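Run log // design_07
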């Protein structure tokens, strides 16, 4: 079966669901992880008083679902044991049963030498662990020293990565020409310049050179390129050209290609 999209629905003939949207980036970026350059990248913060921690702003993907933490979130850990230590996990959790994404605390088991709790990953819930909190016996406040950042641990969290081989940068050069008429203004969009689709010219981005009969012109002194009110690309010379001159456009486009 071939899946495709997206098109406007006409009388209900096109229907899409959440999976259609969620899977749209499959094969381009990883399906799970934290976006490293957005906000505070969901960093877990201590030192805000008592047994509280904060999760900073940021974005993440969980099994192709998205989460966008717009404001800092406060989570409160249970009080420490009097004689034993434990590790708690701060997780971003995909709750399949209730159809939501939420922050949650996975409380560890108290022991003299406690183990770190594992993320839950089954049909009901999928966790990524942002940090472990060392809850030592008798402590009353969570400071930065108790927080173990695990966002770069690909086994339990990890950052979102490109899955393509890379991005290549380069240049493409197009050369086309036309014969002038007794006018100073040429509509490049409508005159069907051969060898290049002028609709792809990006003013201010492409490097565009103009010459007449092999003589290179200066844009500021001899001509200007602009879009008119209807969006067409206009080449306007300072003076009208005589008929029969060969006008050459050289267009150099910087390109990025996913490889």
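design_07 sequence
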């Amino acid at each position: 079966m071939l899946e495709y999209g997206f098109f406007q629905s006409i009388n209900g003939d096109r229907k899409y669901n959440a999976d259609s949207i969620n899977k749209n980036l499959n094969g381009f970026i990883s399906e799970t992880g934290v976006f490293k350059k957005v906000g505070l990248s969901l960093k877990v913060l201590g030192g805000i008083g008592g047994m509280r921690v904060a999760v900073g702003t940021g974005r993440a993907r969980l099994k192709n679902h998205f989460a966008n933490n717009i404001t800092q979130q406060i989570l409160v850990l249970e009080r420490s044991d009097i004689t034993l230590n434990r590790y708690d996990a701060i997780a971003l959790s995909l709750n399949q049963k209730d159809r939501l994404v939420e922050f949650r605390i996975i409380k560890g088991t108290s022991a003299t030498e406690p183990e770190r709790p594992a993320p839950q990953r089954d049909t009901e819930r999928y966790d990524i662990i942002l940090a472990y909190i060392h809850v030592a016996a008798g402590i009353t406040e969570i400071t930065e020293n108790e927080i173990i950042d695990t966002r770069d641990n690909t086994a339990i969290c990890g950052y979102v990565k490109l899955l393509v081989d890379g991005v290549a940068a380069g240049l493409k050069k197009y050369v086309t020409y036309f014969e002038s008429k007794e006018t100073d203004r040429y509509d490049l969009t409508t005159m069907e310049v051969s060898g290049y689709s002028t609709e792809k010219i990006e003013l201010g981005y492409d490097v565009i050179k103009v010459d007449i009969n092999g003589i290179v012109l200066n844009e500021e002194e001899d001509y200007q390129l602009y879009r008119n009110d209807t969006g067409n690309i206009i080449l306007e010379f300072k003076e009208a050209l005589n008929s029969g001159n060969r006008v050459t456009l050289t267009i150099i486009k910087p390109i990025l290609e996913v490889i």
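Helices lie at 18-22, 219-222.
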